[in-house]
Amino acid sequence: MDGRRASLGLMANFETFSERVRMHAQRIAESSAPALSGLYDLTAQRLVRYATTITRNQHDGEDAVQTTLVRVAVEPEQLAAAEQPWGYLLSMVRNESLVILRRKQRWSLVSNLTDLLTRRVVDSIELEDQHRAVWAAMRTLPAEQSEVVVLKIWEEMTFAQIASVLEITPSTAASRYRYAIGKLADKLHANDAEVAHE
Amino acid sequence: MSESHHDADLGNDNQDFHEIEQRIRAAGSYVRVSDDLRPRTLEAARSVCDDTLFERRMGGFFVCVLLMFCLASPVVELLGDYQSRFSGPSSVEVHRKAAELSRRSDIGTQWGMCEAFSQLRQTQASRFRLPR
Predict the structure, then answer these.
(1) Is A65 on the interface with B (CB under 8 A)?
(2) Which residues of chain A have a pLDDT value below 70?
(3) Residue A189: closest CA among chain B residues belongs to which residue?
(4) Burial of B106 (0-12, 13-18, 19+ CB in 10 A)
(5) A110 to each of A45, A101, B24, how far by Cα in Å?
(6) Are A153 and B48 in contact (CB under 8 A)?
(7) pLDDT digits over A75-123, tens only?
(8) Nearest-by-Cβ selection for A131 from B20, B27, B41
(9) Which residues, 6+ apart, have CB-to-CB distance to A109 below 8 Å?
(10) Cα–Cα distance between A79 and A21 in angstroms, integer?
């Protein structure tokens, strides 16, 4: 019962956010590029986080977000007319990220976090280490698994919503998620043990 | 005994699963966006939109020019046709024609002029005649 209520809550969040994205897209359609700042402020942080997870490099992730938002500025009508504008925008960023990923093939930089611009966690080096461990572990996952984790945990989407963004079935999304969390748990526990040993 | 042990394992697994989710959730706000991404994106969008607007305006201008050319060419042709209908020979030509007729037919200059005008009238009448 609680799970169902939580799921309904997530759907409501997603739809509310989608409507805000649609409203900004309509503003861009009315007044062109200057109105893009509203959409940027609303979505950039989340889009960069998603794109960085797919491309495994923050600069590439930001390039993907920039390209996507410029495309939205030129043709905002498509975003405004989408059934779920937030899901549509995530799909656009995903496509751009995959294009960049295929072009650059940065597989050798999987565990490197030097590209990340991070927030300084005040008075807690341990917490910062934990966050870095999570990001490092996420980068070891295949993009198809890490993106499900991002959408499920950071974007608080249901498996049905994730499935519509990634164009897969909800059960595939769920199994990828479980598999990814299992792998992340192993890596994070191994990291914890290493830290404790040191 | 073994069933309760199994339940305990499942409970631990769920707890572990939940803990990992919590750790991942907490790391979500760790990465921040570059300071220059906002101005870079807005500038790129403005530039692309301006280019697109310019291209659309140029496209519209060329379409208008093409349309005007298509409309103007038959009008010019018609005007040219009317000009050729209204334009007649100059007085020098009429005088030359009158002198030639009077010399050839051995008539006076005045009759030559009269004949020249008669021929001119006939030519003009044939030009203005409606095509069947």
Answers:
(1) yes
(2) 1-12, 105-115, 119-123, 196-198
(3) B20
(4) exposed
(5) 21, 12, 18
(6) no
(7) 999 999 999 999 999 999 999 999 998 887 655 555 566 667 776 665 5
(8) B27
(9) A56, A57, A115
(10) 8
